[in-house]
Amino acid sequence: MSLYLEHFGLAEPPFRITPHTDFFFDGADRGATLGALIYAILHDEGIVKLSGEVGSGKTMLCRVLMERLPPHVETIYLATPSLARDEILHAIADDLELRLTHERTTVALRELQEHLIRLYGAGRRVVVLIDEALTSGGRPCSAASSVNSR
Predict the structure, then answer these.
(1) C-alpha 28: how far from its chain's center?
(2) Least packed by Cβ within 10 Å: which of 51, 66, 89, 140?
């Protein structure tokens, strides 16, 4: 391993189970895609779906995106796409430190939407990143779209 690191001038191995954002390569349109995602988020473009082949760098892109967004943008990263719709709503609320007062999904959804509207009015933005959403039959995408308060 040390010969490999020495040959490429690296201080640590670039490949790990979780993406190492210091090794982000913005070639092959990855930089342009990152720029487009940041633009969409900062200009209130609503829901954006990023898809690609396994191993194409979607998770890396999400991680770099979270690092590069300005402080007024709160990111929620859901890496468990097998959650049910109500579990996704509660996971989002938990990350926002919002105590939902009701277990019924419609009431929880309304509380979450009202909270997001208050945050928006205060100049805050919330971005929910759902990694590997396609592996679960689209359920996370529909759950996330239900809280889109645009």
Answers:
(1) 21
(2) 51
Rg of the chain on CA atoms, in Å: 18
* φ/ψ (deg, to 5) at 85: -55, -50
User: Which 3 state secondary structure label does DSSP give 76?
Assistant: strand
pTM score: 0.74
| Helix 85-95 vs helix 105-121: crossing angle, to nearest 10 | 30
Find tokens 């194409």 and name the residue.
56
Name the E strands within 36-147.
73-78, 125-130
Residue 83: which residues within 8 A CB-CB, separation 6 or more?
91, 140
| CB neighbour list of residue 70: distance below 8 Å, 6 or more residues apart | 42
pLDDT in tens, 52-84: 888 788 888 889 999 999 999 999 998 876 788
Question: Buried (b) or exposed (e) across 60-77, using 16+ Cβ within 10 A?
Answer: bbbbbbbeebeeebebbe
CA 127 – CA 148 distance, rounded (Å)? 10
Query: Are 47 and 148 within 8 A, CB to CB?
Result: yes
Dist. CA 103–CA 100, nearest whole Å: 7
Q: What is the DSSP letter of 125?
A: E
